[in-house]
Amino acid sequence: MKPISMYQTMAAWVLILATSLLVHAETKRYARFEAGGITSYGIVEKDQIRRIDGDLFGTWKPTDMTYPLNDVKLLVPTQPANVFAMAGNYRSHVVKGATPTSTVTTTTTVTIDPEKQQPVTTTSTTETIAIPGVVPEKFRIPQPFLKPISSLAPHLSDIIIPDGATNVHYEAELVVVIGRTARNLSPENAMDAVFGVTCGNDVSERVWQKADVQWWRAKGSDTFGPCGPFLVTGIDYHNLMVTLRLNGKELQKESTNQLIHDIPNCVSFISKHTTLLPGDLIFMGTSGTTSAMKPGDRVEVDIEGVGVLQNNVVAE
Asked: Structure pTM?
C-alpha cells in the first residue's frame, strides 16, 4: 500500500471542509402563514408548508402538521419592531446610469442705480453636474430611513394608491431579516445577526417624496411596503438578481453585487445607532430608474433563489 502523501491529506481535509460548509449553508425556506385561524411559522417543503413549534429566531422544532401552500394565507414574513430602508444604495439609481443630471442654483442680488434711483437686479447661476458613475457625496455613507410597520403588506395583497397621490412608483428590493438582538456590530461580524432575506417593494409617491420635509407618507403610507412571500437562508445574499415586472414587462433587473453599501456595512451602520431586534427588516435599496403604477396593474418582485412577491395595484 502506498503511503498517503501530504497533498492527498490536504485534499481530503479540503473536501471535508467544503462538505461541512455546504451542510452549514443549506438553503432553507420559511414562511409565516395563517391556516384555520391560527398564525404560525413553517418550513416550506416544495408545495407544502410544515408548521413549527417555538420561536423561529430562537428555539423551535418541526411538527407533523403540514398544509398545501395553496390552502394557507401567506403573511408578511416577520413581525418586526423596526423597518429600515436604504436610500440611494445602487449607483444606477443615484446617478441614473450614463445620464448626467444637473442642479441649478440661482442667486439674485438687488442694487440701486444711483442715477435713476431704480432697483437693478443681477442674477448669477451656478450649475452642479452629477458625473455618471460617480456616487454623490451624501450617498458615500449608508442612508437608512424608517418605514412604518403599518406600511407592510403581504404577498397577493393590494397596493392601495391613497387619495391625492398622483405619481406612485415601484421599487424592487432585497430585504434583510435580522435574527438576533444586536448593537454596535462591526462589518466583519454583522452577518452573524442576519437570519435571511426576502423580497420587498419600497413603494414611493414621488411628488410627496420631493415636496415633503419627511418621507413619512411618500414611503410609509399603508400598503407601501409589500414584503414576502418567503424568508430564505443559506444562499449567497451578495450576488442575487433582483427583477421587477409590471404587467409581465421586465422594468428592473440588477444584481445585489452592485449595491453601493453591502449588507454587512448597512447592518453595522444601523446597529451603531439603533438596537436591531429579531425580525427587523432592512430594505436594501432599488436599482435603475423606476416608473409609475396605476390601478389595475400587477407588480412582481422576483429575486433569484428567494421567490416572487406579487401584488395588485388598486385605488383607495
From this structure: 0.82
